[in-house]
Amino acid sequence: EFQEPTPTSEAAARAVGCSVAEIAKSILFIIGTHPVVVVTSGDMKVKTSRLKQATQLTGRARLPEAHEVQQHTGYAPGGVRPFLLPKDLRVMVDASMRRFPRVYAAAGNDHSAVPVTVDQLLEITGGAEVEVCEPPA
Questions:
Q1: Is the separation of the CB atoms in 26 and 35 below 8 Å?
Q2: pTM of the model
Q3: Local structure of 133: helix, strand or coil
């Protein structure tokens, strides 16, 4: 845990002392009525069309309201960790993080980060490795 808050990739990178790209951000999306967590590098943007294709879900993809994040993940926005999530919540781990030997994921609150490898993330989360992101324009 850090003295400084870590609710965004930028803030977490400052607290950890790494690049924004090395932060593993966990983002909840709702596709139709289905919640899906995407874990990706802090410098990447999720392409919802790719996410829908990877999950084989249909319907509008949207970012949830804060109360929906808490409801589906058990954590408040800014502290969603990619592990210890409800068993029925799908987790997609973006391959963009493979650029680094380890990344730093939130650890359950907005003042924390834990170093993990992508392989550890895949094992811990039971998630699927996907390519659903690209750098922002």
A1: no
A2: 0.93
A3: strand
Q: What is the mean pLDDT of residues 5-11?
A: 86
**In this structure, how many other beta carbons lie within 10 angstroms of the beta carbon of residue 118?**
21
Q: How far apart are CA 119 and CA 129, in angstroms?
A: 9
Structure tokens at 95: 């391959």
Quote the tokens at residue 9. 């990739």
Per the CB < 8 A criterion, the answer to whether 113 and 6 are in contact is yes
Q: Which residues pair with 40 in a beta bridge?
A: 25
DSSP state string for 39-97: EEETT-EE-HHHHHHHHT--S-EEPPPHHHHHHHHSS-TT---SSS--TTSEEEEEGGG
**SS3 category, 27:** strand
DSSP letter at 111 equals T
Alpha-carbon gap, residue 50 to 6, rounded angstroms:
28
Share of the chain above pLDDT 70, in %: 100
